[in-house]
Amino acid sequence: MDKAKAGYLEGVISVIVNSLLFALKLWAGIVTGSIALTADAWHTLSDSLSSIIVIIAVKLSSKKPDAQHPFGHGRWEQVAALFIAFLLGVIAVDFLRDSLEQFKDHQATHFGTIAIVVTIISIVAKEALAQYAFYIGKKTGNVSVKADGWHHRTDALSSVIVLLGILFAKQFWWIDSALGALISFMLFYATYQIAREAIDKLLGEKPSPELIEKITTSIREDFKEDLHLHHFHIHNYVGHQELTFHIKLSNDTTIEEGHKIATEIEDKIMNEFGIVSTIHIEPHGFNHKSD
């Protein structure tokens, strides 16, 4: 699956569907006077904005490496995900404030059939968009598309909560205020999840034990001598990954022999795992302070 084309397609479909849903839910919110429905509408519009950000990020991240950016531009995806998280956080604060003010003023909302129909349409459409974005994100590894999927999912869940509130609105005058606050907290949680994943990738991640085990096992197939692989570090540039680690060789190994061994291992890792690796050679008996 072409990563750039898939990201563009997900973004364009999301913008079109969300724009239509926004107009529909905003109209229903104005007719009923519901903060929860209106909040849900603006949440949907924020999905359109985040999808536009995804489209821009896909364009920027697909640029080839250049002199100023030798590792490519893939981390634009993380930058876009952080921007989406910030957008969600701002919306959450705004709706939490509105919900608290409505509750303080003892304002009740009267829903009707319009609200029920519009909310059901929103639930189905948004969950479909979420599933599509998660599928594209999983296939391509695009973090900003995954973030967009979470944006769709939180919108679908918030619509489910709104629907439940509509059904119980006659029994509880405060239900609209409570729903608005609950949706805000859901947005805060989505903000945290998206920001955490993006920041982890920007700061750098430790290679997973599974990856280290696979690489170690693969190297042992060709090199019977225990090379004592250690000090693994990985740098994720989205378009590609850079792996560094240390090996230990016999003190009698010449520079030429050591270079040959390191090069063979680097080629093997590239061919089998698609990861660019750099190996530091140490003599047996040498220990780091951290060893």
Given helix and strand content, the structural type is: mainly alpha
Instruction: Report the CATH topology name of the largest domain.
Output: Alpha-lytic protease prodomain-like
Q: Please tell me the total number of domains.
A: 2
Shape: elongated
Strand order of the largest sheet: 1-2-3
Mean pLDDT, all residues: 77
CATH architecture identity of the largest domain: Up-down Bundle
Helix percentage: 55-70%
Q: Determine the N-to-C terminus distance.
A: 42 Å
Give a count of the beta strands, DSSP E runs of length 2 or more: 3
Order of helices and strands: HHHHHHHEEHE
Strand share of the residues? 5-15%
- CATH homologous superfamily title of the largest domain: Cation efflux protein transmembrane domain
Keywords, separated by commas or semicolons:
single chain, 69% helix, 291 residues, mainly alpha, Alpha-Beta Plaits
How would you concisely characterize the structure shown here?
With 291 residues, the protein is mostly helical. It has helices at 3-32, 35-61, 76-104, 113-140, 143-167, 175-203, 209-222, 255-273, and strands at residues 230-236, 241-249, 276-283.
What would you say this structure looks like, in words?
The model has no long low-confidence stretch (mean pLDDT 77). The chain has helices at residues 3-32, 35-61, 76-104, 113-140, 143-167, 175-203, 209-222, 255-273; strands spanning 230-236, 241-249, 276-283. It has a three-stranded mixed sheet with strand order 1-2-3, with helices on one face. The protein is elongated and about 85 Å long. Helix content is 69%, strand content 8%. The chain has 291 residues and is mainly alpha-helical. The chain has two domains: 3-203, Alpha-lytic protease prodomain-like, CATH 1.20.1510.10; 209-283, Alpha-Beta Plaits (2-Layer Sandwich). Helix 8 links the parallel strand 2 and strand 3. It is built from eight helices and three strands.
